[in-house]
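TASK: fixed-backbone design
INPUT:
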């Protein structure tokens, strides 16, 4: 086991409408690093909060030497906020921490000790007991399915927002070209060895979770359309099935015309042509879409966020 004190730790905290609690989370984080005599920095990224969160973290950055506050121009979402925070890290390890106090900052010691002891690329906190609401729990199960199918997440690995990542993995993440960063998937995709360590998870003391059914649907759409060709491949398969069905129906009407005849002049020819051409068009659209997706994945290089102000 390597000495945890020889490394520097960067903490990235996405902030959104947490005026009442983010100051406490920050103070507890600073106290933790000082008590354990660890080199650290804390980057707080305000995702265009509607309350006074920015004022809280802006003043904190002015008071504390190792705190950086970043204010985003608009609300870009949690993953974009974390992706932005990654651009500022200088530590050997990077920890992501929620702003709502449900992940006690003191629990970071378990992440730090475990990743140093085991040599993992990333370690995710696995909660003894989750304190999330029912909607978020259902959403987590759905997202976990896509994480396995799209990113190849091991079945025995639990993904959470409370994690520690080697700097080299974070460097790979920020080099990944995408307008829709999905941090857990990128960590899995760009890491070799990952693990879990048990940590506490507290009930939310103030406010309510920003996750709802609509945000879960949006996240699923990001996973499907930006990290996989699954929808296009499904359409291609549908095109093949429709083509086969069209050919079959067309053949049936052709044989019927030859041996039985038709009471409507030109009916058979029209049905055969429409069935055949319709199936071919759907198939061609599916194949074209596959190429478009692959091309966009290669060429996308647009910033997913814009910074309004930085306070160090």
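OUTPUT:
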């Amino acid at each position: 086991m390597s000495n945890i004190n020889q490394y520097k730790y960067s903490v990235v905290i996405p902030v959104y409408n947490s005026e009442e609690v983010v100051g406490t989370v920050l103070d507890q984080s600073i106290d933790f690093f000082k008590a354990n005599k660890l080199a650290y920095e804390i980057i707080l990224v305000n995702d265009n909060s509607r309350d006074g969160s920015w004022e809280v973290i802006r003043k904190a950055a002015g008071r504390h030497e190792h705190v950086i506050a970043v204010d985003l121009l608009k609300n870009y979402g949690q993953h974009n906020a974390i992706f932005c925070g990654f651009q500022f890290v200088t530590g050997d390890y990077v920890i992501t921490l929620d702003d709502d106090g449900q992940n006690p900052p003191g629990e970071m010691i378990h992440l730090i000790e475990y990743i140093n002891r085991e040599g993992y690329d990333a370690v995710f906190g696995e909660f003894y007991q989750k304190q999330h609401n029912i909607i978020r729990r259902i959403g987590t199960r759905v997202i976990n399915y896509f994480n396995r199918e799209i990113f190849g997440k091991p079945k025995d690995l639990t993904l959470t927002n409370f994690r520690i990542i080697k700097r080299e993995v974070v460097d790979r993440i920020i080099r990944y070209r995408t307008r829709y960063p999905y941090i857990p998937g990128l960590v899995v995709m760009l890491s070799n060895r990952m693990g879990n360590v048990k940590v506490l998870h507290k009930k939310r003391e103030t406010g309510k979770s920003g996750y709802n059914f609509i945000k879960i649907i949006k996240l699923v759409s990001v996973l499907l359309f930006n990290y996989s060709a699954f929808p296009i491949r499904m359409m291609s398969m549908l095109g093949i099935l429709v083509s086969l069905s069209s050919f079959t129906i067309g053949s049936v009407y052709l044989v019927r015309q030859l041996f039985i005849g038709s009471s409507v002049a030109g009916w058979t020819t029209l049905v055969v042509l429409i069935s055949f051409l319709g199936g071919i068009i759907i198939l061609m659209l599916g194949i074209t879409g596959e190429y478009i997706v692959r091309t966009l994945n290669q060429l996308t290089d647009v910033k997913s966020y814009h910074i309004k102000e930085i306070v160090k």
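COMMENT: The first helix runs from residue 22 to 35.
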